[in-house]
């Protein structure tokens, strides 16, 4: 009886595994066609400047408008796209789209708007990176200084000298470079000063327990002081509540991003956000 039970369990497990493998394979096949079908798009999430009360930049975040499954977030497919290497060609196409879109927003009157685009390690290290970025700028007419590329700490750990060279080459194009999710990886502070970065994004891990989280407040204060010393701008990520916004403002964070301000939205919803006076909207005007 026990044996039987065990075999049934094994068969159940086996069936479940097969179903998962099949689903994964199906998703991989779908993903293969997603790019040519135009199903991979950017949504944009605003970054608010708390001094001006205006949207300073938008971060482009990949979404998959799947024909049956609906809108998928990167967690559902990005690692697949990275493993297959498909991210390089998708990233190139989307980077151009983001530059063109931002050039249109600028032409609509939001001349100071910047756009931030994420790069995975695979894209950062690819031979065509510099050419892709420079083509996207040339084809879109977007001023280079309006583009920011977001890199994660992992990239900095692989080969420090080569990474420094590559970031220098990017910066030679006139664009800005930021370190994303700062404080969650293994990069050391000593490394930080070696990289010619412009902006550090404070991970939402430091924000989530605010207010009334003295240790996190101390960490954020230190990060802000460090950035000031190194001449880096900062963006705090993951602001979900008004209390978090207020406490970050008190700590001296100038630029904030998170669901409390806006979730990532399709491009056609951005203009409405760019026109808003946010300090007034949040009743934070001094
Ligand atoms: P990230 O660059 O750190 O982007 C921030 C993530 O946090 C986004 O998730 C965003 O939707 C989410 N987020 C924003 N505000 C809040 C908040 O207040 N609370 C919480 N809980 N989350 C918030 P998303 O869009 O799922 O993207 C996940 C990651 O996927 C990104 O993290 C980035 O590393 C990667 N990614 C996204 N788009 C691209 C892309 O086009 N290329 C590459 N290579 N990676 C991308
Ligand atoms: Mg990012
Ligand atoms: Mg981030
Ligand atoms: Mg992140």
Structure, briefly:
The protein has helices at residues 2-34, 78-84, 86-107, 121-125, 129-140, 153-158, 160-172, 189-192, 214-230, 242-251, 270-274, 278-281, and strands at residues 40-49, 54-66, 70-72, 114-118, 147-152, 176-182, 199-202, 233-236, 255-256, 265-266. The chain has 286 residues and is an alpha/beta fold. Residues 24-278 form the EAL domain.
Describe this structure as you would to a colleague:
With 286 residues, the chain is of the alpha/beta class. It has helices spanning 2-34, 78-84, 86-107, 121-125, 129-140, 153-158, 160-172, 189-192, 214-230, 242-251, 270-274, 278-281, and strands spanning 40-49, 54-66, 70-72, 114-118, 147-152, 176-182, 199-202, 233-236, 255-256, 265-266. Strands 1, 2, 3, 4, 5, 6, 7, 8, 9 and 10 form a ten-stranded mixed β-sheet that branches. The longest helix has 33 residues, at 2-34. The N and C termini lie far apart (75 Å). One magnesium ion binds at residues 180-181, 201, 237.
Order of helices and strands: HEEEHHEHHEHHEHEHEHEEHH
Count of strand segments? 10
Structural class category: alpha/beta
What small molecules does the structure contain? ligand C2E, magnesium ion
How far apart the termini lie comes to 75 Å
Helix fraction, binned, reads: 40-55%
Largest sheet: 10 strands, mixed
From the alpha carbons, calculate the radius of gyration and give it in angstroms: 21 Å
Number of helices: 12
Shape label:
globular
Domain EAL: 24-278
Protein name: Diguanylate cyclase
């Amino acid at each position: 009886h026990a044996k039987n039970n065990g075999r049934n369990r094994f068969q159940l497990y086996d069936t479940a595994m097969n179903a998962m493998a099949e689903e994964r394979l199906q998703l991989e096949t779908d993903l293969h066609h997603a790019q040519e079908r135009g199903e991979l798009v950017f949504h944009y999430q605003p970054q608010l400047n708390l001094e001006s009360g205006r949207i300073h930049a938008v971060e482009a975040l990949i979404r998959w408008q799947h024909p049956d499954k609906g809108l998928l977030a990167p967690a559902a497919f990005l690692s697949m796209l990275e493993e297959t290497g498909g991210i390089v060609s998708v990233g190139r196409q989307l980077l151009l789209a983001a530059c063109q879109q931002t050039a249109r927003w600028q032409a609509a009157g939001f001349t100071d708007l910047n756009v931030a685009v994420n790069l995975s390690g695979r894209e950062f290290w690819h031979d065509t990176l510099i050419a892709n970025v420079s083509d996207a700028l040339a084809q879109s007419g977007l001023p280079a200084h309006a583009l920011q590329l977001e890199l994660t700490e992992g990239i900095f750990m692989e080969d420090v000298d080569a990474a420094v060279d590559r970031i220098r080459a990017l910066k030679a194009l006139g664009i800005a470079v930021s370190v994303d999710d700062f404080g969650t990886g293994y990069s050391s502070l000593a490394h930080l000063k070696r990289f010619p970065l412009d902006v550090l994004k404070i991970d939402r891990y430091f924000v989530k327990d605010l207010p009334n989280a003295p240790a996190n407040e101390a960490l954020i204060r230190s990060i802000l002081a460090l950035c000031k010393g190194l001449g880096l701008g900062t963006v705090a990520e993951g602001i979900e509540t008004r209390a978090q916004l207020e406490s970050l403002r008190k700590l001296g964070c100038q630029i904030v991003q998170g669901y409390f301000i806006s979730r990532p939205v399709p491009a056609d919803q951005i203009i409405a956000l760019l026109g808003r006076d946010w300090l007034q909207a949040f009743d934070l005007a001094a």
